[in-house]
From TrEMBL:
InterPro entries: NADH_UbQ_OxRdtase_su10, NDUFB10. Residues 1-25 are annotated as: Disordered. Accessory subunit that is involved in the functional assembly of the mitochondrial respiratory chain complex I. Complex I has an NADH dehydrogenase activity with ubiquinone as an immediate electron acceptor and mediates the transfer of electrons from NADH to the respiratory chain. It is a peripheral membrane protein. This is NADH dehydrogenase [ubiquinone] 1 beta subcomplex subunit 10. It comes from Tichodroma muraria.
């Protein structure tokens, strides 16, 4: 209900219970305890918290994603350069995690579209379905059949074998 009631339009019926009036001069111990608690514990803690919040508001901290520089691919590493191997492996793992998240985001968008559209999902979510098919095919082409323990070297070998098969198929077609 709004705060500014029109008391004339909506009259409140009178209460049947009478308002109790204090008949004793002894102070209420609950009120004394609440006042003491407020001054002894609550006020200092509130003051310190407000002071810390004011300091934190002055020094705003913005979080940004960590940016890694791109390192050479495993095929560009010199033989025996183990540091380059390690960096290429770490770069491959980061790329794989990014690609997994891309597939997951597209899958969530498709699920949201299907939930939203209901029975008309096949015609209204066709664009999302096509995008999911493209993304999963690209992910499968790059990382498929590597298993959990796949690494940059096996991925590179898989791509090399796929390229050799494509060249062989192109030569057979000519």
């Amino acid at each position: 209900m709004p705060e500014d009631h029109d008391w004339e339009a909506y009259k409140v019926p009178p209460t049947r219970t009478p308002v109790s009036e204090r008949t004793t001069s002894v102070p209420n111990p609950v009120n004394s305890f609440q006042t003491a608690f407020s001054y002894v514990l609550d006020a200092p803690i509130t003051f310190v918290r407000d002071w810390i919040e004011r300091l934190q508001n002055k020094n705003k901290f913005y979080y940004y994603h960590q940016k890694f520089r791109r390192v050479p691919d495993l095929s560009e590493c010199v033989e025996g350069d183990y540091l380059c191997y390690y960096e290429a492996e770490a770069q491959w793992r980061r790329d794989r995690m990014v690609d997994q998240e891309i597939v997951e985001i597209v899958r969530e968008r498709l699920a949201a579209c299907k939930q939203r559209e209901g029975p008309n999902q096949f015609q209204n979510c066709a664009k999302e379905m096509e995008l999911l098919a493209q993304v999963t095919k690209a992910y499968q082409d790059r990382y498929g059949d590597l298993g959990y323990h796949g690494n940059a070297r096996t991925c590179l070998m898989k791509q090399k074998h796929r390229m050799m098969e494509e060249r062989k198929a192109a030569q057979e077609n000519q």
